[in-house]
Amino acid sequence: MTLSAFKEYIATGYPQDKNSITFGCAIYEQKPVTNSWINIPLKSLNRHGLICGATGTGKTKTIQMFAELLSENDIPSLLMDIKGDLSGMAFAGTCNEAIKKRQDVIGLPFEPRPFPVELLKLSDDQGVQLRATVSEFGPTLLAKILELNETQESIISVVFKYCDDHQLPLLDIKDLKKILSYLSDEENKDFEENYGYLSPTSINSIVRKVIALEQEGADQFFGEPSFDVADLLTRANEKDGKISILELSQIQDKSRLFSSFMLCLLAEIYHTFPEVGDLEKPKLVIFIDEAHMLFKNSSKALIGQLEQIIRLIRSKGVGIFFCTQNPTDISDAVLSQLGMKIQHALRAFTAKDRKELRLVAHNYPDSPYYDNETLLTSLGIGEIAISVLSNKGYPTPLAAVLLRAPRSRMGPLTIDEKKQLVSQSLLTTKYNTRLDRKSAYEILNENLAKAAARSQQSTDQTTSETAPEKNRQEPSTFDKLSKNTMVRQMGRTIVREITRGLLGILGIKRKRR
Is pTM beyond 0.85 here? Predict the structure, then answer.
């Protein structure tokens, strides 16, 4: 095989046109081939993808470079920033000898520039606060984040049904704890007649898990205003797509919160974005770092929902890229739907590693120019093996690639730089003030207070013991509540409870439950 034949092999497999982006140049016999560029068709990006590689091989820089190219083509993206060093994309990078040499070898100029960045957060970091209501999460995702067993998950499903039937909005952790406390009362016969018996022991076990989750910071995440996924598509300027960066460095050890949020976000996008068919370029591209968290300890039902979303969300114009160390971290059903595969170097130190290496090598097309297993262990930092789906839908030939360098800053922003960036965001004023409108917590407290007052009034009145049976009315709901021992206790303590305000009266919108 000659060099000229290799160049033709690459040019045929990765042709350049106006609707493509250039990742770098191909590598032949372990040497980069200048101007033999690897071009990725934009149309292929909503067929999803995988970015894999061992720690320290450059996956984060690949995501950064990828998002820059998307932004230049007016495609917004959402990035998960686990390590906290992607925020620097808001500022221009700097050139050094290594970068200049790399770009000269590739045959592309290096022009440092900033990109439009929106910082998002789930914790106390700088950025736009992301929230979702308990109702939006739904019983299945809530069961995952609480790590409930099947019995406890069925109880949560019944609780959601009860709240739907009785117009009790579940917005935050207080609402959830209040309804669980209310339903744990053994004398709540009305509930048992219509929804079945719920074991107080099981409910109390769920309450303890809710409290534990609250201690991890979930009370900051659950509530209103909930994040509108349409804000991921807003334009930053006239020509560049916005890069939304979700800072996760403070909660990287809280995988339940992160993974459950991502599943909720994907479900929200799937249910709210309109059908657009097979576009020439995607409306949004999402990069999910540490993707193994989505599948770890997830129920079969939840993984089934995720597989369905991945299969169908492409018709919404959304591309999803899973980033992890090993492809085996991703379920086979999801892996089979990923059209682009980007592989950084793998390390094979043990027999198990070598077995996994062989499995990964089989995910790529055979090539007359590469031995797949040898290639995957010999890649350097900033080098990848790649195969994508062409515009016609067939896999491109396997290619080793020397990647171009990111043009924005490769490192985090300072605290002052973050503050400056966040202060310029229009979304900060929209989302960073918590709303606290009337919900299950207030409604149940009001009902219990009324029932307690009725109970007190009843004890002060003289009732006739000889009243005809036919004149006795059927006890009302409040009468039944007044006989409840918990209600009487609530009546004595209700005045000491801290109740929430009604600040959320503005901007109320219909929520999915």
Answer: no
